[in-house]
């Protein structure tokens, strides 16, 4: 990291929290404390009032009341921000939850600050845009989201009060590794101190989040989004579905995404585009699977569970009945 980049990062960290110690900042940037002191001096030379608090709980902080200069956006940047806010779930006329309310007020503030010509164009965008409703996702408290982000960035352990999908409230201690947004939800992934296993938590189910003292080592190199989706596909649900599917890999993956299915090659044919694959799905219910299997439009063999074969037969019977194969079609009146 260049000295300029480190200086900007230190400024951002000092703005995001109360006090940062020299030791904490040195560990964060993998430099010595003397380098941090030089970085702080560089910020002071730029006119930023950074105070040093002595003592055991001392450190650096920005003087109370100091604010960065106003953010200036050009015309294209303003339109891009508005378009992005419009696409946030719940940003319409009837917002629900913390995020939706904040999004609606942010749009209103940006609109009021625009010059007349650009305001007219923004009004056209706000009036004409029709934003489809995504799958309903519970709102995440912004304070919990920001606390989680700070802990991930600074490698600080957390305690969290978590309500599971079965409505069971537990308290966990976590080394947070990743903060991932997927399909309208935020997920916090890290090392659970009690089980010593990586665990995934939906932030909208977190009731309280508190940072602890100290830091933890950086996790091994990994791919946060890919690991999250793989965890979804391996989740411990009621049924494990084992299929054999003959098609190209991408053909299957386009219809069964990474968060849903594990796809592995079977036997020979590694160099062939069309071949047999082992597809594994974990699911709590089976009733939604027949349409998914039909959409594959290729040979599929159901190995396990036997209950899925019964569900597919029942679905096929219903479809045949709808097509009039098993009964006379009613005469229109």
Automatic annotation (TrEMBL):
Keywords: Transcription, Transcription regulation
Domain of life: Bacteria
Residue ranges occupied by any HTH deoR-type domain in the UniProt entry: 3-62
GO molecular function: DNA-binding transcription factor activity
Pfam families hit by this protein: HTH_11, WCX, WYL
Record flagged with keyword Cell inner membrane: no
InterPro entries documented for this protein: ArsR-like_HTH, CBASS_pafABC_assoc_protein, DeoR_HTH, HTH_11, PafC-like, WCX_dom, WH-like_DNA-bd_sf, WH_DNA-bd_sf
Gene3D superfamilies: Winged helix-like DNA-binding domain superfamily/Winged helix DNA-binding domain
Keyword Transcription regulation applies: yes
Protein name: Helix-turn-helix type 11 domain protein
Source lineage: Bacteria, Bacillati, Actinomycetota, Actinomycetes, Nakamurellales
């Amino acid at each position: 990291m260049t000295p300029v980049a480190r200086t900007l990062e230190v400024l951002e960290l000092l703005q995001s929290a109360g006090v940062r110690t020299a030791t904490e900042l040195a560990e964060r940037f993998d430099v010595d404390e003397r380098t941090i002191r030089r970085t702080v001096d560089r910020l002071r030379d730029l006119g930023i009032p950074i105070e040093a608090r002595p003592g055991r709980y001392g450190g650096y902080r920005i003087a109370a009341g100091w604010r960065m200069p106003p953010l200036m956006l050009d015309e294209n940047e303003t339109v891009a921000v508005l378009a992005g806010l419009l696409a946030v779930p719940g940003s319409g006329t009837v917002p629900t939850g913390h995020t939706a309310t904040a999004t609606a007020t942010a749009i209103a503030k940006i609109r009021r600050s625009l010059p007349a010509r650009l305001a007219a164009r923004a009004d056209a965008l706000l009036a004409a845009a029709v934003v489809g409703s995504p799958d309903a996702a519970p709102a995440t408290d912004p304070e919990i989201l920001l606390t989680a982000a700070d802990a991930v960035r600074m490698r600080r352990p957390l305690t969290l009060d978590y309500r599971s999908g079965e409505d069971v409230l537990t308290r966990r201690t976590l080394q947070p590794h990743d903060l991932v947004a997927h399909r309208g939800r935020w997920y916090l992934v890290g090392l659970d101190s009690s089980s010593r296993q990586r665990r995934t938590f939906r932030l909208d189910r977190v009731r309280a989040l508190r940072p602890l003292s100290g830091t933890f080592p950086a996790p091994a190199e990994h791919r946060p989004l890919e690991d999250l989706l793989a965890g979804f596909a391996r989740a411990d649900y009621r049924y494990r579905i084992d299929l054999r599917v003959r098609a190209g890999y991408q053909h299957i993956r386009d219809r069964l995404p990474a968060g849903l299915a594990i796809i592995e090659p079977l036997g020979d044919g590694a160099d062939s585009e069309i071949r047999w694959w082992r597809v594994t799905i974990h699911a709590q219910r089976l009733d939604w699977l027949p349409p998914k299997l039909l959409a594959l439009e290729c040979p599929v063999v159901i190995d396990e569970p036997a209950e899925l074969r019964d569900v597919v037969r029942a679905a096929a019977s219903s479809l045949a009945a709808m097509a009039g194969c098993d009964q006379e079609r009613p005469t229109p009146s």
